[in-house]
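Hi R.,

As promised on Friday, here is the backbone we talked about, encoded as structure tokens. Could you run it through your design pipeline when you get a chance and send me back a sequence?
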């Protein structure tokens, strides 16, 4: 079974592509995490977790869900992390997580997809995004083939910089940056409630028709990128910048 977490669609697309190639089912973790649903899941085929890379590691909301949820049946687990650049030393942390859950770690692979973290970076336009996804297709197919054959995903060389980024930088980044304080709504808001509906942590609620953010933000960028009127901004950086949603589906 393929479990995925995806704020703007990159990891959803990757998960569904792998599922398509190995003929395995996919499960979106958004509702599970939103409802704090930790009921056991069972699969006779290896577990595959697909998620974005947050500061060179798996998102903490996904890590926490995995630590509290029993994965029954198959004992092998693979991880596939989408990223705008690199996954750093994420594999080392996922190996420890797997061992803590009594699962056999079968490797972690990175898939470079279009940048979506518009809190800090610029997202590409549609055509550039499609080109990046096109270049990612061989990597996705290669990962799917190895999983389908029951082979481990090959490890990658880890430099000292990777260890620092996944370690010290990640530890500092979360408390310093991953907050909802800079999100704001403009007069373009139509009170549709889309932002409230797509937040995986139920961190947004409408008050007098306007979204208000709480303190449980994970910076998945779902609210700002899925707003139909681009009425949400993050500080000054997002002003005038394109929002990002994966422009490709497995049916394309």
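Update: got your reply. Pasting your designed sequence below so it's all in one thread:
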């Amino acid at each position: 079974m393929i479990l995925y977490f995806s704020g703007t669609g990159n990891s959803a697309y990757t998960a569904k592509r792998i599922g398509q190639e190995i003929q395995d089912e996919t499960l979106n973790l958004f509702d599970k995490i939103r409802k704090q649903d930790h009921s056991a899941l069972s699969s006779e085929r290896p577990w595959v977790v697909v998620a974005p890379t947050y500061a060179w590691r798996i998102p903490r909301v996904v890590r926490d869900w995995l630590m509290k949820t029993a994965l029954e049946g198959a004992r092998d687990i693979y991880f596939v992390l989408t990223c705008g650049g690199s996954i750093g030393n994420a594999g080392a942390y996922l190996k420890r997580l797997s061992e803590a859950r009594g699962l056999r770690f079968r490797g972690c692979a990175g898939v470079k997809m279009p940048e979506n973290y518009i809190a800090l970076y610029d997202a590409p336009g549609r055509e550039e995004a499609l080109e990046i996804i096109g270049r990612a297709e061989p990597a996705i197919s290669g990962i799917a083939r190895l999983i389908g054959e029951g082979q481990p995903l090959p490890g990658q060389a880890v430099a000292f910089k990777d260890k620092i980024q996944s370690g010290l930088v990640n530890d500092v980044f979360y408390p310093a940056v991953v907050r909802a304080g800079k999100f704001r709504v403009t007069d373009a808001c139509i009170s549709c409630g889309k932002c409230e509906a797509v937040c995986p942590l139920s961190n947004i609620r409408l008050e007098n028709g306007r979204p208000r953010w709480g303190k449980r933000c994970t910076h998945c960028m779902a609210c700002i990128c899925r707003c139909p009127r681009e009425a949400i901004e993050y500080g000054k950086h997002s002003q005038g910048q394109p929002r990002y949603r994966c422009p490709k589906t497995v049916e394309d």
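One thing I noticed while checking it: Residues 167 and 188 are 40 Å apart (CA to CA).

Thanks again,
M.
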